[in-house]
Amino acid sequence: MDSRTVLSIKDLSIEFPLYEGTLKALNGVSLTVKQGEIVGIVGESGSGKSITAMMTMRLLGEGSYRVRTGSIDMLGVDILKASEKEICELRGGDVAMIFQEPMTALNPTRKVGKQMVDVIRRHQRVSKGQAEEIAAGLLSDMHFADPEDILARYPFELSGGMRQRVLIALAFSCNPKVIIADEPTTALDVTVQKQVLMLLKKMAAERKTAILFITHDMAVVSQFCDRVYVMYAGSLIESGSTRKVLHSPRHPYTRGLLAALPETAAPGTQLKSIPGSVPDLSKLPVGCAFQSRCSQSSEKCHQKPALAEAPQTDAHLCACWHPLTDLEAVA
Amino acid sequence: MNVSTEHPIASIEEVKSQRSKRIGYFFYRVRKSPLTLLGASIILFMLCVMLFAPWLATHDPNAIDLMKRLQPPSAAHWFGTDEVGRDIYSRVVFGSQQSISVGFFVVGVAGVVGTLVGCFSGSVGGRIDGLIMRLTDTILSVPSLVLTMALAAALGASLFNAMLAITLVRIPYYVRLARGQALGIREMGYVKAARTFGASRWHIVRWHIVRNALPPVVVQATLDIGGTILVAAALGFIGLGAQQPTAEWGTMVATGRNYILDHWWYSLFPGLAILITSTSFNLFGDGIRDILDPKQRGK
Amino acid sequence: MTPTPILQMKDVHVRFPINPDWLGRPRQHVHALNGISIDVARGDILGIVGESGCGKSTLAQILVGLLKPTSGSLQLAKQDAATRSGMQIVFQDPQSSLNPKLPVWKIITEPVYALGDRPSQQAMMDLAKSLAIQVGIRPEYIYRFPHEFSGGQRQRIAIARALSTNPEIILLDEPTSALDISVQAQILNLLQELQRSRNMTFILISHNVSVIRHMCNRTAVMYLGQIVEVGATLDVLENPRHPYTQLLMESVPKLSDAGFSSDPAEKTELPSNIKLPAGCFFKDRCARATSGCQTPQALVTGEPRQTGHQVRCHLAYA
């Protein structure tokens, strides 16, 4: 493993036992995140992107799922085998998490300042006064004009965008090496989203923090991420630099998804939708999960295609027997 | 028009199979919980006893035989006899008719009335809602057993009056429950949609609120049957329920109390019947709640 | 030549009383809508775009009659307002907008039933079937319950329900925000087909600028309960004149370019709608604010006039 790799997931398969059969949520997911990199995972609902994020910190309810294969290495800790204590040390220390709903992540009955001081002092040996200074400094980095005022307020006195900025400041309070961000701006308005994303990017660049960024929004990925993985039905189907994946997609699904966006079509024309719907994860077909909706599918698609193991991680990979050439993709 | 459909064609058979799958899932969950299964089996057994009482009883429950007073359990009298020589086994068997039908009657009437009033109150809101809520608060602020006794005494001692008293006292609980549900359902998109069609209040209560408020009410009702049987027995015990010579478990326990030191069987068997029946309804109710509770249920 | 509008809103204000004193008299008001005037012509698809707190959802409730305006007027051309069948609505969340306890045919025909004419069960089922076909739901499916459908199919059912009374106007309140991209495309295509084949009028409320651009011929941008810019969609979204519209368009993430180009706005908070700002509502966030912004702003019509492009900013055409 490269010494600069901070997170490496290898061949992870997760399933949830159900009344009838099993729900195959992840099917052989392998990905890496290097120091200081912003890596996106993009997919529709049910693609497994959030479960991947939760698994990196083992946040799914114990006992509700089964790990069929695979391993997760986060900063040298084997997440699937680590004790609860080791994981707790990682959480909020070297690894921070930011979620979609900023209200539930803060205790509504305590002032923002007290909560920030608690978190800072849990992981760093500093006095209360020093912790308050650190908190104020972090808030002014997040472009709050008057950090002292924010520290003295209760969470409900802040708007959604302000709360998310407080949480980002909190996430950076312990100088994490990795931030897992699960749809952090989905609930925000676009003007606020832009501000939050730019601040997040700036802070991460200054501190060489890696970000694993989960989203459903292709346009946000194109603005924010260095590299991107595309997920479909619990499998990674395409990966590479953001520019390559979004501008010359090679997997038919990625191309279909991009073509279905209203911004890529001329106003008033018919949108190119992908026929059919996402397969039932408890009844996945043998082979490629996209075959029934794909115009390119053939006999060969009854075998599961894999993202080939590549020497350098920024290569443009595509799990498809009939990848599109760049020329087709542009057309 | 060219529109895409998302799934292959489905027949009526498939719809039926979907429904039987849901029922199958229900039984699967019941099977997974042994206590629920136990409760359900006892209830089923008790219902059979109640229906087939004339055939299961070995004697006429009211036949007096002074020669055979207070005899211990024997081959002729399985549970022994009482102070006038009536067969206790037969009386317990016939007593199930009183107790269980009281349970179902009270819960049925209180459930239906309470749900309707509660749903109406919750969906109307405003002053009417406030009035109904203050009324239920008043009833709920008095200990329910004391109030039931007072009402039963005021109406006069008889099984029917006891039933009426229990029902009246139970109604506010259902009103509260249904109203709480209605308040949540009122904010759902489908109720707002119905309001935009210009649907009447009655239409909204009937189509949307009652249907969706029902599952927790059903759970509560199942749990309540056991409690109601206990209260009915208690009223019988203090003489406000069924009157002699009617075979009723609570009354039997009460009379047996006078002989309890030397003739243990007299109170024991009807007491056991009360215990087992009310416990089984509680077990079953708990199980149903676990199954129907959306928080416990996966997608 | 502008066709006669089928919907006219004139200076609609809505305020909600809050913070009552001990006699129950409100001490303050939330000003949700502050003078909305707009006309909708037959066959229009009017887009209404704005961020949270701009009054979009209050406007939707006013339009379908869930709320009454505090002042101002709302007129539908088809004046059988007693039944309000002139306007139907499709909500954002197909999860909660369909009653889980009713079969689909009852859901689809509920507006007809609720309006008081009680056709036979067979007639209702036939109506449900024909509507289901129009929105791309197989007619055999109408005996099923909502939970057996995917999000996209549920939204189709909600559209079928809105069509059942043959309304003049359908109000689409964020109809695809809860859906995945590929499903969103199917629903938007369906809406366009319906609009063309029936010459329907849509009012589409959304925070998603690209959906508005794709669907609408006219667009109104809302900010703090006012329309700040209105006109032909391409004029408004490609050549925004109001500083807020400009900020909005700059903030929308685009697929084409990598990385945000301009700096983020420093002030992203809306002013309070309890104590409305004096003068222009946007002046505190506006880079171009001058002394002329201290007075309330009116909608200024630009040249050429027939395009109907109006901007609530005195600097727009200066």
TrEMBL record, chain A:
One of the Pfam families matching this protein, by short name: ABC_tran
PROSITE patterns documented for this protein: ABC_TRANSPORTER_1, ABC_TRANSPORTER_2
Keyword Nucleotide-binding: yes
GO biological process: peptide transport; transmembrane transport
Domain (ABC transporter): residue spans on this chain: 7-258
Entry membrane topology: Peripheral membrane protein
GO molecular function annotation: ATP binding; ATP hydrolysis activity
Alphabetized InterPro entries for the sequence: AAA+_ATPase (IPR003593), ABC_Ni/Peptide_Import (IPR050388), ABC_transporter-like_ATP-bd (IPR003439), ABC_transporter-like_CS (IPR017871), Oligopep_ABC_C (IPR013563), P-loop_NTPase (IPR027417)
SMART domains hit by this protein: AAA
Subcellular location: Cell inner membrane
Keywords assigned by UniProt, alphabetized: ATP-binding, Cell membrane, Membrane, Nucleotide-binding, Transport
GO CC aspect terms: plasma membrane
Top-rank taxon: Bacteria
Protein family per UniProt: Belongs to the ABC transporter superfamily.
The protein's name: ABC transporter ATP-binding protein
Organism of origin: Crenobacter intestini
Automatic annotation (TrEMBL), chain B:
CC per GO annotation: plasma membrane
Spans traversing the lipid bilayer: 35-57, 100-125, 145-169, 221-243, 263-285
Subcellular location, record wording: Cell membrane
Protein's UniProt name: D,D-dipeptide ABC transporter permease
Annotated CDD domains: TM_PBP2
Molecular function GO labels: dipeptide transmembrane transporter activity
Domain (ABC transmembrane type-1): residue spans on this chain: 96-285
Matching PROSITE patterns: ABC_TM1
Membrane topology of the entry: Multi-pass membrane protein
Presence of the UniProt keyword Transmembrane helix in the record: yes
UniProt similarity note: Belongs to the binding-protein-dependent transport system permease family.
Keyword Flavoprotein: no
Entries under PANTHER family matching the protein: D,D-DIPEPTIDE TRANSPORT SYSTEM PERMEASE PROTEIN DDPC-RELATED, OLIGOPEPTIDE TRANSPORT SYSTEM PERMEASE PROTEIN APPC
Broad class of where this protein is predominantly found: membrane
InterPro entries: BP-dependent_transpt_permease, MetI-like, MetI-like_sf, OppC_N
Keywords: Cell membrane, Membrane, Transmembrane, Transmembrane helix, Transport
Native source organism of the sequence: Crenobacter intestini
